Fold these 3 entries.
Entry 1:
Amino acid sequence: MMAKPEVAGRCGCGRSPTGVCCGWHALNEEAYQAKLSEFNAQLKQTRAFDQDESDEIEREKSINEELESYRQQAMDLWFDNGGSCTGAKGPGTPNIN
C-alpha cells in the first residue's frame, strides 16, 4: 500500500513543533519535554542571531546612505557649475550633471 503524499511525513501525534514527523511520538513525557525545551532554546538562539544579523544589515545600509549623501554634497560643492574644487573650468573637468 502506498502512502498518501498529502499525509506522508506529517506528524500524527501532535508533538512535532514543525508539523513533520520527527519521531517524538515514541518518547515518554519526560523525554518529550526535554526535547521540546531543547528545540525551543535552539529556535530562540536562531531568532536572536537572525535579529542581530538583520540589525547589522540595517546599520550598514544607514552608513552607506549617509556616505552617499556626503559624497553628493561634496560633488555639489566641488563641481558647482561644471567647475572643480579649485574653481578650474575646462575640457578636462568632468560634467556630473
Entry 2:
Amino acid sequence: MATTVAKNAWSTRNILVVSVVLSLVIGAAAGFAAASIGREPLPPPQHRNVYLFTTVLGFNETQAGIDFGTDIPHDYFAPDRITVNKGDSVTLKYYNTEDAPENHTFTMSYSTYNFNKILQFHDVQTFNFTADLPGVFPYICTLHQPTMTGYLVVLEA
C-alpha cells in the first residue's frame, strides 16, 4: 500500500510575498485616509487685494559687488511670497517706494497672463488676474536680479 504525503500549498516564500503586498496596500490606504481626514477644504473663490512694495536691504551694494565679483543689488520685494487659492480673483497693487529715483519692473508669466511693466520712481501699478492654475510661479524685477524675486503660490482645492 502506498502512502501519499500532502504538500503544504503555502510555502514560506508565498506567505512572505502576500504579507508584504498586503502591508503595502493597507499602509497606502491608511496614509491616504490620514491625509484626507485632517484636510479642510479651501474657502470658495474670493477677491484678494495684494499690496507689493520695493524694499532695500541694509548692505553696501558696492562692497558686495567687490566681495562677490559681480553686482549684487540691495533691492527686494515685500512680500516675496503671495499665496492665493485657485479661483480667486486677484488685484495686485505694486508700489515703487524708492527714496531716490530708481526704476523697477514687475515681470511675471502666469497662466494666460504676461506682465512686464516698468515702474518709475514713486509709481504705482495695478495688475489683475484670476488664479486659475495651481502651482508656484516666480515674479521678478528684471533690473535687480538675483535679489528681487518673489513667488506667487496658487493652492488647489
Entry 3:
Amino acid sequence: MSKLENNMNREEFHVSSLVVLTQPPLRHRLAEQIAALEGAEIHAVSDEGKLVVTLEGSSQRPIMAAIDAIGAMPGVLSAALIYHQFDELDKQCEDMP
C-alpha cells in the first residue's frame, strides 16, 4: 500500500474540553443548548455559572465551529479551550470483527 493510499484509509478522532463561563441565572438553559450540539457533552455546572464541556468530532473543523457557536450564545461570557487531542483511526482496523 502506498503512503497516499495509507493516508486515505485513516480518519481522525478529536476530543476537546472547555470551560464555559455563563451568566449564572442562564447556566442551566445554556447547558441544555450546548448539550444539544452534535458531539457536545456537559460534565459539570456550577452555581457561579461555569460549565465543563467536552466536544468530540471527526476533525478540528466541527470542534472549532461548536466553540464559535457556544461563544455566540446569548448569556455566554467566555468559552476557553482547555485541552485538545486527536488520534488517527485506521479504517481497516475498524472494519475488522
